[in-house]
Amino acid sequence: MKLIIKFNLVLSLTSAIGLAAAGIISSKVLEEHADHEIIEHARMMMESAMAVRDYTIKEIRPLLKQLDHDEFLPQAVPSYAATQNFKTLQQDNPDDSYKEAVRNPTNPRDKATDWESDIIMQFRNHEDIDEIVGERETPTGTSLYLARPIKITNKACLSCHSTVDQAPAKMIKLYGPANGFGWQHNEVVGSQIINVPAAVAKEKAQRAFITFMLSLTAIFFTLALFINFMLRSLITKKIKNIADIADKISKGERDVPELDTQGNDEVAELARSFKRMRVSLEKAMKMLDE
């Protein structure tokens, strides 16, 4: 097997190993970056929801003091305001969703599903946890979710959620007396949950991965061509020339051109050594002829 073929086999093997290692690492890094991008997007939306909640509590709720006890405005409820505000944001991000899931809600639309109830129970059982990030499969594909607990830290909330007797009459008329009562101070009653589809970010990561791997493959291929060219020009061509001359001398040919011995590399040293051997051989042949 020729030297150039052996070299290319070794080069191909090392290149394949390098590409595989680069592919594994870059795929993992890009996937982690995609997940991070999704979660950061979810955190921004969560902060937006929290801002609306705080505004409702600080700016809107004080206006209720001017109303009768039996008066009730859903727009003054923080969860209602945050949910309605998110609907506006959904115009630009229709696949995103926000829900204030509650196990025992006043508004039926806030009723927690089974998987949302599991998240609420995690917050109830582990009060030191203030955020949960996870991934779940949905009918439209993989979705990442960000969840934070809804805890009754403001006793003013209990005026609507402690007992039916204390709740505003118009709230009872709107939602009924069956749900949304019996809440306790410092109790985790639900969870704010934002769902963000992972498909778009994953597709971007996949396209970036393919572009990176194609570029890296092109670089390896170009480098291999360059190395092969240099190998042929600086090594194999000169060695082949030495071998051809040695073959002619071994066959007794006299009119053989001199080798190029210029240079400081190993091939030039081999040529000089061969030239010395040739001179010694020619002297020995002359002595035999005499």
Report on this model:
- The chain is of the alpha+beta class.
- It folds into two domains: 93 residues, no CATH class; 164 residues, no CATH class.
- It has a four-stranded antiparallel sheet with strand order 1-4-3-2, with helices on both faces.
- The longest helix is centred in the first third of the chain and has 62 residues.
- The protein starts with a helix and ends with a helix.
- The model has no long low-confidence stretch (mean pLDDT 81).
Average pLDDT, to the nearest integer?
Answer: 81
Q: What is the molecular shape?
A: rod-shaped
Q: Between the first and last Cα atoms, what is the distance in angstroms?
A: 43 Å
Strand order of the largest sheet: 1-4-3-2
Order of helices and strands: HHEHEEHHEHH
Q: How many domain units?
A: 2
Question: How would you summarize this macromolecular structure in one to three sentences?
Answer:
The protein is an alpha+beta fold.
List the helices and strands and how they pair.
Blueprint: H1 3-64, H2 78-89, E1 97-102, H3 114-125, E2 132-138, E3 141-151, H4 158-161, H5 169-175, E4 188-197, H6 199-250, H7 266-289
Antiparallel strand pairs: 1-4, 2-3, 3-4
Characteristics:
12% strand, alpha+beta, 290 residues, single chain
